[in-house]
Design brief:
Helices cover 60% and strands 9% of the residues. By secondary structure, it is an alpha/beta fold. The chain folds into three domains: 141 residues, P-loop containing nucleotide triphosphate hydrolases (Rossmann fold), CATH 3.40.50; 63 residues, Helicase, Ruva Protein, domain 3, CATH 1.10.8; 129 residues, Zinc Finger, Delta Prime, domain 3.
Length: 348
C-alpha cells in the first residue's frame, strides 16, 4: 500500500486530499516529503507550504489555508498535523474543531492545493460522521509499523538508495538489533552506508561493530544464556543491565515477550508449520522466529508454559509491591536455571 502510494506520487498522480493515520509516523513523514517534492517542484516552500498543528489550531483555519491560491507557483501543499479529533484517542482538545468545514471543503477541493491530514493514532473513530465521509471522499492510507518481508524490503531499499549492497544476514541482524523502528533503521542504514562507501557491501560483522545493542538485544542474550545452561553469564548480563539503571519491570516485560514467542513458535512448529509460516502468523520477521525456535529446543512446551506463567506472576508481585524488583528478577533467573536443568534431555 505505501509502496504503491509513493509510486503514484513519484509519477505525479496526486489526490486533492490525503488522510494518513497509524502509529508509524516516520512513514507519514516520508509520504509528506514525497508530496512536498512533487507539489513544490523545487520551488520555495516559504510561499506555498503551510504546516498547521491541529492540537493548537482549529481545523476550520486549516481549511482556510487550503482554500488560498498559490503564490509564485502552480500548487500549494497544506499539512494538518495531529488531527486526533478524527481518532478514537481520548485527548483533551485545546481548540474547538468544526469538522463540517472540512467536509464542505472535500466536496469541492481547490485543484491547486494538496491537503494532507495526519492522525498519529492507531484507529480512526468510524462512528463519527466526519470519518465516514472522509473514508469515501479522500485518499486514506494506514501507516502501521512494518513487519516481516515488508520491513526487510524497506531496509534493502534504504541501502539501495545509498548505493550499497548488504548481505541478507546483515539485514536480518540489523533488524534484530534495531527492531522495526524505521527512524532508527533509517539512521543506522545511513551510518553503515557511509562506513561501506559508495558501491561497497555491508556484512553481518559491520552491523555488529557499528550498531549499538538495545535493551531487547541484551534481554535476548540473557534468555539465550539461560537456554544454554550458562546461568553465571545470564546473571552477569542482568547485573550489567541493572548497573546501567535499566528498569527491572522493563527487563521482565521483555523476558515475558521472549518466552511467549518461544512458546508460540514451539506450538506452531509442532503443528508442522515452517519458520516462514510461523513468522507470518505471528507478524514477526523470520530471523527472530529462527532464533526463538533454537532457544526453545532446550525446553518442553509444558516448561515454557510454566515459565511464562511464573514470569507473569513475578511481574504482578512486583507491581503489587509484594517483592523487591531486583530480588524478584534474581529469583526468576534461579527458577529458569533450575527448570532448565530439569529440561536436559526432554527438549524438542
Amino acid at each position: 500500500m505505501i509502496k504503491a502510494l509513493l509510486r503514484e506520487i513519484a509519477q505525479g498522480t496526486l489526490a486533492p486530499v490525503y488522510l494518513l493515520y497509524g502509529q508509524e509516523t516516520f512513514l507519514m513523514e516520508e509520504i509528506c516529503d514525497a508530496l512536498r517534492e512533487q507539489v513544490l517542484d523545487g520551488g520555495d516552500p516559504s510561499f506555498n507550504e503551510v504546516v498547521v498543528d491541529l492540537d493548537e489550531v482549529p481545523v476550520q483555519q486549516l481549511v482556510q489555508e487550503a482554500e488560498s491560491t498559490p503564490f509564485f507557483g502552480e500548487r500549494r501543499i497544506v499539512i494538518g498535523r495531529n488531527a486526533r479529533f478524527l481518532s478514537t484517542a481520548k485527548v483533551r482538545q485545546k481548540v474547538e474543531h468544526r469538522p463540517e468545514a472540512l467536509l464542505q471543503y472535500v466536496k469541492e477541493p481547490l485543484p491547486t492545493t494538496v491537503l494532507v491530514l495526519l492522525v498519529p493514532e492507531e484507529k480512526l473513530d468510524t462512528r463519527k460522521k466526519a470519518v465516514k465521509t472522509l473514508q469515501k471522499s479522500v485518499r486514506m492510507v494506514r501507516c502501521d509499523p512494518l513487519e516481516g518481508k515488508e520491513l526487510e524490503s524497506w531496509v534493502l531499499d534504504r541501502f539501495r538508495r545509498h548505493g550499497v549492497k548488504p548481505h541478507p544476514e546483515a539485514v536480518h541482524r540489523l533488524i534484530q538489533l534495531a527492531g522495526n523502528d524505521l527512524r532508527r533503521l533509517h539512521h543506522e542504514c545511513a551510518k553503515l552506508a557511509t562506513y561501506a562507501g559508495a558501491g561497497g557491501g555491508v556484512s553481518t560483522g559491520d552491523v555488529e561493530r557499528m550498531v549499538p545493542r538495545t535493551l531487547e538485544e541484551d534481554v535476548f542474550k540473557l534468555v539465550d544464556r539461560v537456554a544454554g545452561r550458562k546461568l553465571e553469564e545470564a546473571f552477569a548480563i542482568l547485573y550489567d543491565l541493572l548497573n546501567q539503571r535499566e528498569e527491572p519491570i522493563r527487563i521482565l516485560a521483555l523476558m515475558i515477550r521472549q518466552f511467549r514467542i518461544m512458546l508460540q513458535v514451539k506450538v506452531l512448529a509442532a503443528q508442522g508449520k515452517s519458520e516462514r509460516e510461523i513468522a507470518s502468523l505471528l507478524g514477526l520477521h523470520p530471523y527472530p522466529v529462527k532464533l526463538a525456535r533454537r532457544q526453545g529446543k532446550g525446553f518442553s512446551e509444558e516448561q515454557l508454559r510454566r515459565l511464562l506463567l511464573a514470569a507473569i506472576e513475578t511481574d504482578q508481585a512486583i507491581k503489587s509491591g509484594k517483592i523487591d524488583k531486583t530480588l524478584a528478577l534474581e529469583r526468576f533467573l534461579f527458577l529458569l536455571g533450575s527448570d532448565k536443568k530439569e529440561a536436559v534431555g526432554k527438549g524438542s
